[in-house]
């Protein structure tokens, strides 16, 4: 499956959202919630002695992907474009790969 095909599949189940608020509100808040669920799985593994449940983590990552797809669509972007923008930004920031010095001393305009 290609990434924009995934986005269209995700949008198939985005109906019924609160129409009084923009779709991106649900999307951004959902990203926070699902990312928190991923963090909780890792926290329990590291600090509470739980086995790392990779399948559960993968399912939560799928939920993160769903909210990412919906949020991108709601602001007029397809996922391929969002991902390409990120690659372009990181190549510009770190042309030779990650560099802690460049990370610590980024330009103010580098978001």
Automatic annotation (TrEMBL):
Q: Report domain NTP pyrophosphohydrolase MazG-like positions.
A: 30-98
| Pfam families hit by this protein | MazG
Q: Which UniProt keywords apply?
A: Hydrolase
Q: What is this protein called?
A: Nucleotide pyrophosphohydrolase
Organism equals Mediterraneibacter gnavus
List, alphabetically, the InterPro entries matched.
MazG-like_dom, MazG-related_GP37
Q: What CDD domains is this protein classified in?
A: NTP-PPase_u4 (cd11541)
GO molecular function ontology, one term from the record: hydrolase activity
């Amino acid at each position: 499956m290609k990434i924009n095909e995934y986005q269209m599949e995700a949008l198939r189940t985005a109906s019924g959202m609160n129409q009084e608020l923009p779709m991106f509100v649900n999307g951004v808040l959902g990203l926070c919630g699902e990312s928190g669920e991923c963090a909780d799985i890792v926290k329990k593994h590291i600090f509470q002695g739980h086995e790392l449940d990779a399948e559960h983590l993968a399912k939560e990552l799928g939920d993160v992907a769903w909210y990412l797809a919906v949020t991108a669509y709601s602001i007029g972007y397809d996922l391929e474009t969002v991902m390409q923008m990120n690659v372009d930004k990181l190549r510009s920031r770190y042309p030779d790969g990650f560099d802690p010095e460049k990370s610590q001393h980024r330009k103010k305009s580098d978001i």
